[in-house]
TrEMBL record:
A single Gene Ontology CC term: centrosome
Recorded name of the encoding gene: ARHGA
This protein's name: ARHGA
Classification lineage: Eukaryota, Metazoa, Chordata, Craniata, Vertebrata
Superkingdom of source: Eukaryota
Biological-process GO terms, alphabetical: actin cytoskeleton organization; mitotic spindle assembly; positive regulation of stress fiber assembly; regulation of small GTPase mediated signal transduction
Keyword Nucleotide-binding: no
Length: 108
């Protein structure tokens, strides 16, 4: 069942701890990137070259934002799945549990 997959993924403390650390350190990491870009022209040129040569042309900031944007997307997906999962269906409780885990994490 799909609900069980979500519960297994989001109830593991390793995943939640890693995500929390990532979010909590995001501002610091971005400050380091900005400082390094300002002080090391080679680093800035490297980032520009990587962006220009990648198929999606995504910036480092854009890449670093993806994990932060992912959890709200999962929350919306789970909410939509719950709307379309009948009461009494075997997936309903696991989906609700996964949604609760994600919403709790998003509040931190």
């Amino acid at each position: 069942m799909i609900g069980d997959v979500f519960v297994a993924s989001f109830s593991k403390s390793m995943v939640l701890d890693a995500y929390s650390e990532y979010v909590n350190n995001f501002s610091t990491a971005m400050a380091v990137v900005r400082k390094t870009c300002a002080s090391k022209s080679g680093f800035l040129e490297f980032l520009k070259h990587r962006q220009e040569s990648s198929s999606d042309r995504m910036t480092l900031y854009g890449l670093m934002m993806k994990p932060i944007q992912r959890f709200p997307q999962f929350i919306l997906l789970l909410q939509d799945m719950l709307k379309n999962t009948p009461v009494g269906h075997a997936d309903r409780l696991p989906l609700q549990m996964a949604l609760t885990e994600l919403e709790t994490l998003a509040e931190k």
